[in-house]
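Before anything else, study the sequence and fold tokens given here and see whether the fold suits the sequence. Record follows:
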Amino acid sequence: MKKAILTGYLLLFFKFNLTINDMGYIYLLTNIFGSSILFLEFKKTEKNTFTHFTLGYLLLNVFLFILSMLDFNLMSLGMTNSFSFAASLFILFLLFYNFLYPLFSFSYIVGNIIRESPHFSRVTTLTKIALFFATLSLVSFFVSPAFASLSILAVIIMEISLIPLLTHGFQQQYKEEQKLR
């Protein structure tokens, strides 16, 4: 189960574009596949509170993929009336949610794993730093898009650096489980 969850998160963290307004096909498809894997794995464990949020995240990415297929661009939405302004704010909120949810749920899931194993202490530190940079990128998006891109780059670096730590932690945990048998 843990390999499938790790694969799902790796697909969610797969990102080429350094903007929050990322509606590229590859990014959205990896989000759809990753959230599908996570939803199926979370559904197996009845106590997981992220099952409904992951389903919502999956539907959000399908919705954004459909908008992308229809060649919708947030920047092309005219601000001529209050409805179009509200619609653009809503879509911008969805894009923020699309960017921030994987990190938030990942930090929660890893936090539960860490309670079981001492091998993941660096993972929590890097996840907290990545959440800080993700929040910083969302705040700076309105002030300085260039700084927001740098913050997103820092988040991507943190996500990439989590991979060997998680792999090593899972290997250590597996070895300990094998010794107990």
Notes: The helical segments are 2-12, 25-44, 51-69, 82-116, 121-140, 145-180.
